[in-house]
Amino acid sequence: MKQKILTGDRPTGKLHLGHYIGSLQNRVQLQHAYDQYILVADLQALTDHFDHPEKITKHIIEVVKDYLSVGIDPNQTTIFIQSRIPEIAELTIYYLNLVTLNRLSKNPTVKHEMHQKGYREAMPLGFLCYPISQAADITLFQAEWVPVGDDQLPMIEQTNEIVRRFNRIYGTKVLKECKAVLSKTSRLVGIDGKSKCSKSLGNAIALSDSPEVIKQKVFQMYTDPNHIKASHPGRVEGNVVFAYLDAFHSDQEAIASLKAHYRRGGLGDVVIKNILNDSLQLFLAPIREKRNCLNDKMVKEILHHGTAKAAQLAKKTMEMVREAMRIKFR
Fold it and tell me: Burial level of 221, CB count in 10 A (0-12/13-18/19+)?
């Protein structure tokens, strides 16, 4: 039997190049060798969008269109909706008893996102506890591999802590530990150069952006503020344009030559931005074309079948969990 992989995304907006680099390209490759499950994490998205649930519902279809457009095949990958699997909520409740408040508060990913969102005393408990829900997602579907960016590694560590404690307390091997699958370029900087790509920060190029929007965003990119004239030597490190050229240009020898030219002077920012724009247009055109061929009815059918399949596995795992906990009433 193939080993299982589980990953997913919060449906809070269309996916972008950061998602592609961080996880999507891995998912496309891995679906051929593994039994892959992709979760549309609408429940997790509500932890910080609870006051606008319509935003989540609206973007479920859009996120799945992005999956399909980059090459994720519903015949090889099970795509399903988190909220349609009630066993996730049940398992999350059991896991809440295995994790302390102090441990959750020290999770580096949670701490970073708390700061980013400006949470202090008003932080919702649902947000604080979402790593436990993620652990339920991963273990319920018996995933042994999880494609993530390096910023999510603390989540994998937290999941494995829960697995070990559950198995030790109940004297079982029902739950499996998992390992992260990291991308070669696990984090793509935002076009502003200040943070990683983010839907909420509005500093990303979406997979479905039009050619005009792509060009506009490329020419907004942060380069080297001291590179006033083309004749001046420029700095490549921290230069967003070169970060994207490294990730998406097909000829890395040509990029190495461009970097050397930029460093010694004589190469303007407009030139390298035009080169990047051409590369991204070439890369995104077939993705956008495939996306435009999809309709909502097709996507809903895929989600219906995927969720039904995921539900079968969830029920099977929960039966084993209840048996191990000795709470299986007849």
Answer: buried
For 265-297, the pLDDT digits (tens) are 999 999 999 999 999 999 999 999 999 999 999
* pLDDT (0 to 100) of residue 148: 79
Query: Long-range pairs for 274-280 at CB < 8 Å and ≥24 separation?
Result: 275/245, 275/249, 276/218, 276/221, 276/241, 276/244, 276/245, 276/248, 276/249, 277/214, 277/215, 277/218, 277/219, 279/244, 279/245, 279/248, 279/249, 279/250, 280/17, 280/205, 280/214, 280/218, 280/244, 280/248
pLDDT digits (tens, 9 = 90+) for 290-319: 999 999 999 999 999 999 999 999 999 999
Query: Tokens in use for 111?
Result: 């701490």
Residue ranges of the alpha helices (H) in the chain? Answer: 17-19, 25-30, 42-45, 53-70, 86-96, 101-105, 108-117, 125-128, 130-140, 153-170, 211-218, 240-248, 252-264, 269-292, 296-325
pTM: 0.89
